[in-house]
């Protein structure tokens, strides 16, 4: 009952922020660009995340924050799993200047989409894979030249906690072509704020940030597999872990992962998951290579 009441209060607060505060902030940014506009988007994200903390009792903490220093030295492809809308807000707050790769339909949402368009996203048509890859390659190169990293969610959509969706290869093809390092990030926000669910679970979301994975010394397949395996292996499967775990403790925590979202008593072992993921990745790679060659991406 308490969780339901807190979720309702959180929802009402979000409506107020979206319908009242967001238009005011958006109007105030009409003439703002660059770092000024970024400061406004960070402030807006902090308001939403702050209200989530007050209303629903959801907070976050970071493991591996020292790896953010690499983003200050040079732009990276930031690759993360995607479980809820919370990571887009949290990443806006904690990361240096960046651009999201996202579906273009998001730009059409009143207020939110209009503000999002000013943040220089790479907005793609997901139904046109070949041109989407060319667009990511071209615009990622432009964003890197501006000193911005590029954030990509290779699952392509929000995936409920505990479910496994193979990573799409497009971002890794571009990373290899541009020889851009990948900074992997893992988040378990889907436990607290599941996709499509009204009720929110109070607790502390854990974000794990890894060291860069260099593209120059790896093939596209190796880059994709290593990144996906790292992210899968660093999704902490519960809220409110009593202390920030070490690398060894994270590995112990993340195997096996029990799916809470599907409400099935199903434990996925790391060994079985790797076999399934490898088979799916090989199949996806064969299809991708048949459609898009690396030469086409760079045209």
TrEMBL record:
Bilayer-spanning residue ranges: 12-37
Domain Phospholipid/glycerol acyltransferase: 76-190
This protein's pathway: Lipid metabolism
Keywords: Acyltransferase, Membrane, Transferase, Transmembrane, Transmembrane helix
Highest taxon, organism lineage: Bacteria
Any GO BP: phosphatidic acid biosynthetic process
A single MF term (Gene Ontology): 1-acylglycerol-3-phosphate O-acyltransferase activity
PANTHER family from the UniProt entry: 1-ACYL-SN-GLYCEROL-3-PHOSPHATE ACYLTRANSFERASE
Name of the protein in its database record: 1-acyl-sn-glycerol-3-phosphate acyltransferase
Species annotation: Ignatzschineria indica
């Amino acid at each position: 009952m308490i969780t339901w009441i807190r979720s309702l209060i959180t929802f009402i607060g979000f409506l107020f922020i979206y319908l009242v505060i967001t238009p005011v902030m958006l109007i105030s940014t009409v003439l703002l660009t660059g770092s000024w506009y970024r400061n406004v988007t960070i402030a807006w994200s902090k308001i939403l995340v702050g209200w989530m903390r007050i209303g629903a009792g959801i907070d976050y903490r970071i493991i591996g924050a020292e790896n953010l220093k690499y983003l200050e030295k040079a732009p990276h492809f930031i690759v993360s799993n995607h479980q809820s809308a919370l990571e887009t807000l949290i990443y806006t707050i904690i990361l240096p200047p960046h651009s999201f790769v996202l579906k273009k339909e998001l730009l059409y949402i009143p207020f939110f989409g209009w503000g999002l368009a000013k943040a220089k996203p790479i907005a793609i048509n997901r139904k046109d894979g070949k041109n989407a890859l060319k667009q990511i390659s071209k615009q990622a190169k432009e964003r890197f030249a501006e000193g911005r990293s590029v954030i990509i969610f290779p699952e392509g959509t929000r995936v409920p906690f505990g479910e496994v969706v193979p990573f799409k290869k497009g971002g890794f093809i571009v990373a290899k072509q541009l020889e851009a390092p990948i900074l992997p990030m893992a988040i378990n926000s889907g436990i607290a704020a599941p996709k499509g669910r009204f009720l929110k679970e109070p607790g502390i979301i854990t974000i794990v940030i890894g060291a860069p994975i260099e593209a120059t010394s790896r093939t596209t397949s190796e880059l994709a597999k290593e990144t996906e395996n790292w992210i899968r292996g660093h999704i902490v499967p519960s809220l409110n872990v009593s202390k920030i775990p070490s690398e060894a403790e994270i590995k112990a925590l993340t195997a096996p992962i029990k799916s809470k979202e599907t409400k099935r008593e199903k434990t996925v072992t790391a060994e079985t998951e790797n076999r399934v993921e490898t088979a799916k990745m090989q199949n996806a790679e064969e299809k991708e290579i048949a459609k898009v060659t690396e030469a086409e991406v760079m045209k």
